[in-house]
Amino acid sequence: GFFYIPGTDTCIKLGGYLRVDTTFNGGVYDQPAWSSDLGLGNRYRDDFSSRSRMALTVDTRTATEYGVVRTFGQGDFQFDSFNGTTVNPALLGAAAGTNGQQLMTPGNGYVAVEMVFIQFAGFTFGKSASAFSTPWHGYPGNNTSFLIGGNDTVTGVNNIQYSAQFGNGVSATIGLDDPVVFNRT
To answer: For 135-162, what is each residue's pLDDT tens digit?
Structure first.
């Protein structure tokens, strides 16, 4: 839960998760064993794959004369084994600049900002879930995001939103998204 930062009117909550996936004779994203190098049985194959991910969240709330000011940020830290994908050293140098997956070689990973936003008086500014996302934004129950009307990103999108609360659980939201990275039409 939240706790007060001593000497301030601000509450803070630190959270996150740690997740480790290991798959034998397959890939992290449900890649079957008959696909890629694993299926070929060549010298670049990896008989098991693993992914470790940690998310760190910081959520603050400050009461003001005009309402609550909320800030939220989530950073992700991930390491993947190559999960059956080719780790041909000759290909790494040529493709590293254009293929992000090739950069995730054994011993490396990535750091990402999943969401970071500020909320005040019904407005949201920053990188957050789109107002146009379905309620199951991302992965419901860590299952899949390939649902009808589902959003196929687990990260936020740069946006500005306004939410009006009408009471009894009824609200309406309107927003402007920056679709440069996600949800391009």
So the answer is: 655 555 555 555 555 555 567 889 999 9
- From CA 33, how far away is CA 35, in angstroms rounded? 5
Report, in angstroms and rounded to the nearest whole number, the Rg of the chain calculated over CA atoms.
21
Query: Residue 8 has which token pair?
Result: 């301030």
Residue 40: helix, strand or coil by DSSP? helix
The full DSSP string for 118-135 is: EEETTEEEEEE--TTS-T
Alpha helical stretches, state H, the chain? 36-40, 89-95, 100-103
Q: What is the pLDDT of residues 48-64, one digit of tens each?
A: 777 788 999 999 999 99
The β-bridge relationship of strands 10-24 and 48-64 is antiparallel
SS3 70: strand
> Which of 146, 126, 123 is CA-nearest to residue 134?
146
Of the candidates 17, 129, 38, 34, the one whose C-alpha atom is nearest the C-alpha of residue 82 is 38
Residue 84 one-letter amino acid: G
Beta bridge partners of 56: 16, 75
| pTM to 2 decimal places | 0.71
Number of DSSP helices (H) and strands (E) in the chain, helices first: 3, 8
- The strand pairing partners of 116, in sequence order, are 73, 127
- CA atoms lying within 13 Å on the CB side of residue 167: 0
